[in-house]
Amino acid sequence: MSRALASPSLAVQRGILGAVLLVACWEGAARGLHLPAYVLPAVSDILVGLWSKRAILVDAAGYTLLEALVGYGLGCLIGIGLAVAIALVPALRSAILPLATAINSVPVVGYSPLILLWFGIGVSSKIVMVAMAVSFTVLLSMLAGLDRVDRRAVDLMKSFGASRFGVLWRLRLPTALPLLLAGMRVSTVRSVIVAIVTEMLGAHGGLGWVIYQAVLQIDFVQVWAAIFVASAASLAFFGLIGFLERKILFWT
Amino acid sequence: MAIPDSLRKLIRLLLGLAIAAVIWEGAVLLFGIRPYYLPRLSTILMAMAATPRAYVDGFLRTLAETLIGFASGGAFGVLMGVVFFRVRALREMIFPIFVVSQTIPVIAFGALVVLWFGNTLLAKAIIAFYLTFFPVTVNTLLGLEAVDPKQVALMRSFGASSRQLLLRLQLPTALPQIFVALRLAASLSLVGAIVGEWFGDTTGLGVLLLQAMFTENVVAIWAALLAAALLGTGFYAAVAAVERRLVFWNAEQ
């Protein structure tokens, strides 16, 4: 890197400064220009609204996070499983990859009407949607990781009599881990957003449902409060996976 | 062979599509899949042919929203990448806000944008923009930072200005990275356009999807999905083709 890295504390200070400036501008614009709540409510009003509706919002966030987490776990398992199957049986690649790519040529949210019809408006349709959104990213990053392995290292292990499974377990999986975990980290925010998007089209609860109801009731303080909660939930999920990533990848 | 390369590729593509169509049609007939889950391809195509105007109009409308959002998001993303690269303080102040902005569910953001700008083409394009600019910013920044400092020092020693440095060395070096993000952004801008249409509109592929859901018309859902797939892959292929043209030195990989 061409320039010396600024000390991390300075970066953090500037980050905080940026956030404070944003909040100040927001608050100032909303109060100073007397913007109506449906245009832009003041931050303080949103926080007050968030606190007064905290029971509903926490419930909704729990509902959404449950869908996102279960779908995320399922999607990761499917993605990893398919990638490992391709690594073990290379002939599968030409069957699985074109199909996965074809399914993914439609943006994943496009499927939500179909999935809602098939699985109803309960929790299961959201889980399926999240799993679909996550599994493709995980499959691709896992495959890229498995393919990245050094040819010579494979040959060396084979010359010592390692089986295909042995090479996979001891060499290719550890090599693939950094890329896999990077793909999984990217998928966290996406899984929460997909759950919320699907909830908006039909659900019994959750943040997307709360947001949609609030839009219908023109309660924009509540919309913003739900947005704050959704962002916090996404960031927490992202942070959790990032933390696990650093724990697992202790050697990088 | 006399057949040019591009023509052969086209033939192979058409052949692949034809095989996929036969497998689809055959699998539905063979396994007796209920139309509720997967209708026959011919049924879907006939449904599209019955009301072609709705699909053509929807396709063009969604395409326009996607293109405007993509172009503005891509330009803004590259610009912000360069600004963040040049001005470290700005980067540290604004970049975290960008990151947080991407955790806002697009639905919630869409609700606000539609409220601010009405149910217009502009509102949908802004939603597509919002999904597009972030990956482009990130990859521009990454690409610019990966430039070899020795090359920068060399050009500086020949008296290159910052502008020349940027245009002749840094941006071209970052271009492959930028295009990785642009290809991703091509898909994301379509998501933005489709979701944006769910807030109530009269034309567009998202509208067709939603109407089909409310009438529980699975054939119409699949027809809209096919149109969206065509738009998505076509746009992606176009971006990839531009990439092969512009990043010609990276082509044979």
Quick rundown:
The complex is a heterodimer of chains A (252) and B (253). By secondary structure, chain A is mostly helical.
What would CATH call the class of chain B?
A: Mainly Alpha
Determine the structural class of chain A based on helices, strands and strand pairing: mainly alpha
Helix-strand string of chain A: HHHHHHHHHH
Shape label of chain A: globular
CATH fold category name of chain B: MetI-like fold
Structural class based on helices, strands and sheet pairing of chain B:
mainly alpha
Largest sheet of chain A: none
Offer a few descriptive terms.
heterodimer; A: mainly alpha; MetI-like fold; 80% helix; globular; B: 253 residues; 10 helices; 82% helix; membrane (chain A); cell membrane (chain A); MetI-like_sf (chain A); ABC transporter permease (chain A)
Task: Provide a descriptive summary of the structure in words.
With 252 residues, chain A is an all-alpha fold. Chain A has one domain (42-248): MetI-like fold (Orthogonal Bundle). Chain A is built from 10 helices and no strands. The radius of gyration of chain A is 22 Å and the shape is globular. The mean pLDDT of chain B is 85. The longest helix of chain B is centred in the last third of the chain and has 36 residues, at 162-197. By secondary structure, chain B is mainly alpha-helical.
